[in-house]
Amino acid sequence: MDKLYDFDKLFDEKLAAYISQKGKEHTEEEWEDIIPRLYRKFGDTPLKSIGTTPSRYYAEMDKDALIGVLKRHLTEKVSVSDFLTKALEEKDCIEDILPLLESEDEDVVLYAIGFLGDDERAFPKYLSLLASERATEAEKEGAFDRLEEHADEVKEEALFSYRAGVAKETMLELLSKVRTKDDAVYEILLDEFLMHLEDIPKYAGYLASYGDARAIPALLEQIKREEVTFVEFRELKYAIEALGGEYFEERDFTSDPNYQKIQASGTDLFDSFKA
What we know:
Layout: H1 7-22, H2 28-43, H3 54-59, H4 63-75, H5 82-90, H6 94-97, H7 106-116, H8 123-131, H9 137-147, H10 155-163, H11 168-175, H12 183-195, H13 200-210, H14 216-223, H15 230-242, H16 257-265
C-alpha cells in the first residue's frame, strides 16, 4: 500500500521552524499575508521523500487514483492538503465526489460538501441528507447551508418533501429562503405561523425571511394580543417592519420575566435584529 503524505503537517513543521527564526521580523498581520505565500511556494518545492513537488505529486495522478488517495486521507484521518483538493478540481472530479455524500463517515461527507459547494449536481443529495435519519446534525447543517442560497432551484423538491411530511421543519425553513413569490409557499408559511402561536419567534421569523408583505395583517393581529410576551412582541415587531409594515403602540412588559432580565443586564439582547 502506497504511503500517505501529510503535506500540511510537513508544512506546519517547516513553518514553525521558520517563524522561530524570523518571527520578530513581521507583525501578526504581515504573517497572515506571508503564510499563504509560503504554502504556495512549498507546493512548488521538490521534496526528496516523493521525488517531486507536492503539487505535481497529485497533478500526475488520474481521477481514480486521486479519489482513492482522497478516501484514504479521509478515513485514516490524514489532513487533505490544498494540493490534493486543487488536483481534484482541475480534473473535474465532481461526479466522482458525489457518492461520498452517502458515506457513513461524517468527515467524508463534510469534505464532500465543502468540495461540491454550490454545484447543482449535488442538490438532490443535499436534500437527501436533510431528510435522512442517519445523517448527523453537522452533515445536515452543511447541506442546508449550501441549499439556502439556492432555495428557488429546489423549491419544488422542498414542497414535495414538506407535503409528504419528510423533514417538515427543515423544508419549511428552506422554503422561507425562496426569493420568488409563490402562493403555495406563502400559504404554507402563513398556515404554519397560525398553527404554532406557541412558538411565534420561529414562525414569525420564517415569514420575515420570506418577505411577503401579505403576512403583515396576520402579524399585526397577533402583536395586538394582550397576552403576547415581550420576546414574542419583539419578534413580531421585527417581522412586521421587515415586511414593510409599522407598529407604534407602546406596551408595558415590566412584569414579564424576560423583560426584567434584559433590563437588569443593562443591554437589549434584541438589538441585533434592528436594521
